Amino acid sequence: MAKELADKAKEAFIDDEFDVAVDLYSKAIDLDPNCADFFADRAQSYFKLLSFTEAVADANKAIELDPSLTKAYLRKGTACMKLEEYLTAKTALEKGASIAPSDSKFKKLIDECDLRITEEEKDLVQPVPSTLPLSSTASSVSELDLTPAPAAPAKPKCRHEYYQKPEEVVVTVFAKGISKQNVNIDFGEQILSVVIDVPGEEAYYLQPRLFGKIIPDKCKYEVLSTKIEIRLAKADIITWPSLEHGKGPVVLPKPNVSSEVSQRPAYPSSKKVKDWDKLEAEVKKQEKDEKLEGDAALNKFFRDIYSNADEDMRRAMSKSFVESNGTVLSTNWQEVGTKKIESTPPDGMELKKWEI
Q1: Cα(20)–Cα(5) distance, rounded to whole angstroms?
Q2: Contacts by 143-151 with C-beta closer than 8 Å and gap 24+?
Q3: pLDDT at 341 exceeding the cut of 70
Q4: Which one, 61, 168, 171, 260, has the greatest CB density within 10 A?
């Protein structure tokens, strides 16, 4: 059960959910309080939460449980450095280095501790007061150790800038004449580590927790004569407001509306189906409401009568119209039905017959 909680804590740590990781490691420790790995891993989670004192306490407990656990010394050393306890940090790191002499991280951190300790000692040196008597001053000077102190390493003249594209962030470290052998760059899921270690100079560190996640396998760098160009492949196409995590909100790219519209698939069901019955009714209504004049109006009047008549009325209208050569139009079949109808209408009457 404790191992399962620890595995979940590791997953939370990878997802940058450090609070959750601390809680899960604490539950695992409650079930198995003698596991040094649980304390060392919780120390790392505390470190990410900037709770350096708690990180040192957990690292000490891990060392107590397992004196050969190198990561416990490493985490104690890094946390003590954040607390500016450089002597304590150096002691822990040297012990870890003696257990794992091939791990270069210990040497680099020890060198940084030495540098910080030297700077603190220089700050403690007070100048000799000029108001002392000459004899006293002379004796004091004679008693002083005039051996020149070793010069502190010169600080590297490096600075960095960055710019970004939708798919990548380009970090440029301006450093002239740096050999590739003196540059060590590592990529993590959300970590960039740049170390420039030139003999005789203070090592340059650029180790930010990045604003967004990257794809380590697609990241690359190039050491040039005046700079180091680092290309970070973004895992998500978002705009980083800063290089480091927690210094601005996520900015999503603006969607290209025109391209989205042009690429949108057209489905047959998306087209409106025309209601032909409704359209025909509208046309008929327009024809009915249309105001005509002269022969057109008269012809429309006769057509309306004919279309609304029964069969006898239509036969009467046709027979009377034909027999009268277009001068009589009767609707009474009983009146005209007994009269003889010419077999062939006069010339010109067929057109008028069909106009009825």
Answers
A1: 11
A2: 149/122
A3: no
A4: 171
Q: Which residues contact 75 (CB under 8 A, 6 or more apart)?
A: 40, 43, 44, 47, 55, 58, 59, 62
Quickly tell me which residue has 């690359």 as its tokens: 220
pLDDT tens for residues 225-242?
889 999 999 999 999 999
Task: Identify which of 209, 213, 208, 207 has the alpha carbon closest to the alpha carbon of residue 238.
Answer: 213
User: For residues 282 and 284, what is the distance between their CA atoms, to the nearest angstrom?
Assistant: 5
Going from the C-alpha of 85 to that of each of 37, 77, 99, 175, the distances in angstroms are: 24, 9, 22, 30
**What gap in Å lies between CA 153 and CA 116, rounded to an integer?**
11
CA-based nearest residue to 26, from 63, 53, 48, 54? 54
The type of residue at 3 is: K
The model scores a pTM over 0.70:
no
Structure-token pair, residue 32: 């198995």
